[in-house]
Structures are given as structure tokens and as C-alpha cells.
Amino acid sequence: MKYQHIVLGVTGGIAAYKSPDLVRRLREQGAKVRVVMTQGAQQFVTPLTFQAVSGHSVHTTLLDAQAESAFGHIDLARWADGVLIAPASAQALAKLAQGFADDLLSTLCLATQAPIYVAPAMNQQMWKAPATQRNCQLLRQHGVTFLGPAEGAQACGETGAGRMLEPLDIVEQLSHTTSASPLANKKVLITAGPTREDIDPVRFISNRSSGRMGYAVAQAAHALGAEVQLISGPVNLTPPAGVSRIDVYSAQDMLNAVQQQLSGTDIFIATAAVADYRPAQQAAQKIKKNNTQASLELEPTPDILAWVSAQTKAPFTVGFAAETHDVAEYAKRKLAHKKLDMIAANQVGLADQGFDSAYNALTLFWQNPNGLIEEHALALTDKFHLAQQLLESVMQRYQKKILTISAR
């Protein structure tokens, strides 16, 4: 395991009973573990239990008179090369996202430069709540890595996402995120968000894309070790930590940026919802309403995806197809017509997924060496987990393409 000094934060929740076993599993991997407990956590498991399994005193108070500097949070923040919060309650995630520093654990997280990992554990409805998902999105943008949650039966009697991962699964995922990644030293170029095509100085043509899917893919790719360049249309999102962003406005702007950045790109993922048409002429002044019918002549915008895939040394190219009907058929046509390596199709216009939602589902299509179209469905989940699953499939197909080219 890469991390030798791990601070384990334990917050209030029934899943805290798993945490002593987690300490034991981490120590089996050679890590030294210091445990920090919130007041809520102490209602479920005693500090003495963690002292016994860790071999060290448990930290529970912000100002520690026994600490060398009398500031325990600073000492722990400097000692840690990794911080893991398991279980991470909804309250803990909210405090971490908003930068609260009212107890030892939250203050330590602000004071440390070590990577932070969280293993959420809460009721399934609390996990799905918009407030929780907003906090999770903010934490991911700040570079916090999520381990889980898992799905299944919960202590409250309900079933769904929100279970804390089992200790062995947490250790396995923690080891996986710190090991060499197949995207290490790879350049991934991603387009995200909508474009805007001006009609006049006041009005424009656009669409409902929020950019969340593209930003989630950028965050997931960066977590896998890639050098990520994000080309973004107008959105109200903060770029993920460690990701370089170029802001663009129109389809032509996005094409220009892609042309400038494509050199050296290994994987190109076009999640952007680029406007298909733009006004043939843009009015210099606001068009006034005069109570008569008006017509607007439109012309096609440049096809960014087709331009990329047509390059002599094109990167592994992934397109997106957002459709309201006949999703699979239109996606397959786009895959063949634009000669893509893969296409991700999603049905838009549904409640609580796709545009303006933190959730989505995708169906991936690609052509195998025999010319047959294969597909793989990714079930409805939050967009970051969906991005992780998408990248797993992209990496598998990318590696096979590289091996095929090398064998020629």
C-alpha cells in the first residue's frame, strides 16, 4: 500500500461497527493507523476498541494537551500521508464540503495536504437527497475520492445505495487508487457543456446541457492519473481539481480549441452538447418584436467529432448521443457514420436523469474486429460513478486497439 501513515476518521453511524476491522485490515497491509473519532461515533463504538486494534491512543478532542504542540489537529495533519473517513455520514460530508472546522476531524481535513478518501454510509434516501449529492459533487471537484457507497439492505430496513463498503473492499479500492493507473501519462481531451450560437446581442440558440457529465468524466480521468484538458461551454461549474479548463462559447470556438489541443491526445471524449445549427446571419442589434411572424435562417455548425475521427493519427474517439427516441438506432448510425471507436448513448427528456440532473444512465456501443456492433449498458447512477464505469470500458477498448495496432 502506498500510504504508510493513515488517519482514519470515524463518524456517527451504525456502520462504525465495521471500522475496527478496517483498522486491522489496513495494518495487515503495512500501514500505521491513527484513529480520530467524532462525538457521534463514540455513541456506537468506544475509543478503547480502536486503541486495542490500532495500538495507539484514540484522538477525540480538537485541543489536545498531550500533543507535543498542544494542537493535535496540526500534528495529525502533518503526520498523515492519507486521510480516510469511514464511515462518512451525511453530516460529515456536508461539513467537509462547506469547510467547517468545529471538531478535530473537520479541522484536520482542512489542515492536511494529504489526499482525502471518504466511504459514505447513510440511509438510501439521505444519499439520494439533492443536498447530499451537491456536497458530493463539490467534494469531488476539490479532489476528494469516494469509496462507495454500496447498495443493499440497510439497518433501517430499507434497501438501496448508502451502505458503507466492507473493510476488505475499502482496502482493495484504496490500494487500487494508489497503484499505477492505465491512464498514467496519457492525455485525455474532453469537451463538456453546451455551446451558444448568437441570434443578436441578446438572444442565442443553445440547449439544456449542464456540463455535469463532462466534468464528472474529467474528474474521474484525473483520478486515474491522466493529464486532462477540459474544453467547456458556458456552465455554472467549478473545474475539477488538477484539471486544466479552456472556456469557449460557440461551436466554432470549441472546434478551434479542440484543433489547438488535439496534438498528443491519446483519448478524446466528446460529452459536449454542441448546437447543430447557428443563425446564418447574426443581427448587430436586438431584433425588435413587431407582432408579425418571423423566420430565422439556420446553417449547420462545424462537426467537431467528425473532424477529430477523420485525422490521420486520430486519438481513441468517444462520442455521445443524447436522443429522445430510437436511442440505440441513432447511436449506431452515428458510430458508423463518424467512424468512432465508441459511442455513449443516453435518453434525454426523462425525469430525474440526463440534462439538469445529477443522475444518468448510458448504453455503450462499439464495433468489434468482426464488424459486429457490441453494446454494454451502464445502469442509472450518479454521474461521477457513471463516469468511472464509462472510463473502465474506454480503457479496455483503448488497450485492445493499441495491442491490435502494435501487432500489425
What's the average pLDDT?
A: 88
Provide the gyration radius in Å: 24 Å
CATH topology type of the largest domain: Rossmann fold
For the termini, the CA-CA separation is: 38 Å
The CATH H-level superfamily of the largest domain is CoaB-like
The proportion of residues in beta strands is 15-25%
**Any idea of the CATH class of the largest domain?**
Alpha Beta
Major sheet details: 8 strands, mixed
Polypeptide structure, described:
- This protein is of the alpha/beta class and about 400 residues long.
- The chain has two domains: about 5-175, Flavin prenyltransferase-like (Rossmann fold, 3-Layer(aba) Sandwich); about 185-280 and about 295-405, Rossmann fold (3-Layer(aba) Sandwich).
- Helix content is about 35%, strand content about 25%.
- It is built from 13 helices and 19 strands.
- The protein has helices spanning about 20-30, 45-55, 70-80, 90-100, 105-110, 125-130, 130-140, 165-175, 210-225, 250-260, 305-310, 325-335, 385-405; strands spanning about 5-10, 30-35, 80-90, 115-120, 145, 150-155, 160-165, 185-190, 195-200, 205, 225-230, 245, 265-270, 275-280, 300, 315-325, 340-345, 360-365, 375-380.
- The strands form five sheets. The protein has an eight-stranded mixed beta sheet, with helices on both faces. A five-stranded parallel beta sheet has the order 2-1-3-4-5, with helices on both faces.
- Helix 1 (about 20-30) links the parallel strand 1 (about 5-10) and strand 2 (about 30-35).
- Helix 1 (about 20-30) packs parallel to helix 2 (about 45-55), helix 3 (about 70-80) packs across helix 5 (about 105-110) and helix 4 crosses helix 7 (about 130-140).
- The protein is elongated.
- About 40% of the residues are buried.
- The model has no long low-confidence stretch (mean pLDDT about 90).
